[in-house]
Amino acid sequence: MSHPSSKPAMLIQRPSLFLAASCAVAVGFTGCADQQDPELATVRDSAGVTIVENSAPAWTAEDRWRIGSEPSLDIGVVDGEPEYQFFEVAGAVRMPDGGIVVANSASGEVRFFDSAGDYLSTTGGKGSGPGEFEDIFFLRRTVGDSLLAYDWRNRRVSVLSPNGGFTRSFEFTVLTTTGGFPVVSEPFPDGDILLVTDMFSTSTQVVEGAKRDSALYYVVDPNGEVAENLGAFPGGESYETTDGENWIGGGLVFGRFGYAAVSGTGFYYGSADRWEIEYRDKEGNLTRLIRMEHENLPVTQDDIDRYIADRLERTRPERRPIHETMYEHMPFPSTMPAYSDFRVDASGHLWVGEYRKPGDDQPRWRVLDPTGRYLGIMETPPGFSIYEIGSNYLLGRWRDDLGVEHVRMYDLVR
After folding, report:
1. Which of 65, 97, 117, 224 has the fewest C-beta atoms under 10 angstroms from its C-beta?
2. E strand or H helix at 318, and its extent?
3. Is 105 helix (H, G, I), strand (E, B) or coil?
4. Which residues form the domain of 50?
5. So what's the pLDDT on residue 26?
6. Does residue 41 lie in a domain region?
7. pTM score, whole prediction
């Protein structure tokens, strides 16, 4: 990717991996499992690294998890009071008392609701002053139930009290020297933060073709100072070309991307080249390697045509010729990524998003227990993006057919 003049990654796709045989759902959304060979996973040690190789899910029809068929909480309206209208929701968290906090990036606001979804208060607003936001990129809960809201245009993190009071702000100091854009920023239980930054070229010279950029991984302290430099990992695949006068580029269609998520005192990382996921400690040491029997889906001409048609339909008319030029010259991978996106739930289970073919609107997640053993597949509601998975709920953003945003919570029965 190149250095952006506005939010980057407009063309980077992070859909989920398609499952050839999906689960039959009788009531609500369920976890899926078949009757399998008793040898579901093998675990071995290699030079101090635990290797877990999964061949089949462990869940049976009786013990698989289930998600409610209807939301237990829905906040959002098409018309009505502005506090309930959302646009560009950047994150949502549930507080210990059941209250919901929502970052509405378009208005630069952090809004607070009670456990029933009734509006309480708002903090922030557009601006660059203390406690104000130009463009919120993420919202996280950290030590003492404080809230971290990252403003990518002001390049700073604001720390809010549990009731929304502005406490302080800080910058990720490494970004002032290396540049880059934070694509992951998740707190550890002790308040340190895993910071992952995509690196953008500042060169004005166009290097035509596809490439894979690096992502730099850091552990930073609660003041934004680097505590540990974990090094460079494979990041996202991108493509650039020129129409003779203008630079044209973006994420490679069906390209790989690096994914990471904090879990306990370490973090998961995966490059999506194949179904393999690493677990590393805060010093970057590899302690566990998780593998799954899996073949990446082939990229067909129909997949390419459907993807391009969908993207062009959603592109402003004046920009379509630019995108058409890029797609005309872009090389397409022969296979799709192995997976898409990570989430870690309140019990330490890793949810791995399956990469979906164009036209497949059903999200699916492969769930692994904290030791890396594969449990089964969870189907989540179409149009629903997960922000948080608690012990008995899923919280996230849902878009209706008109693109209207809601913040929803679904019951999770384990």
Report:
1. 97
2. none
3. helix
4. 1-64+205-212+242-378
5. 34
6. yes
7. 0.88
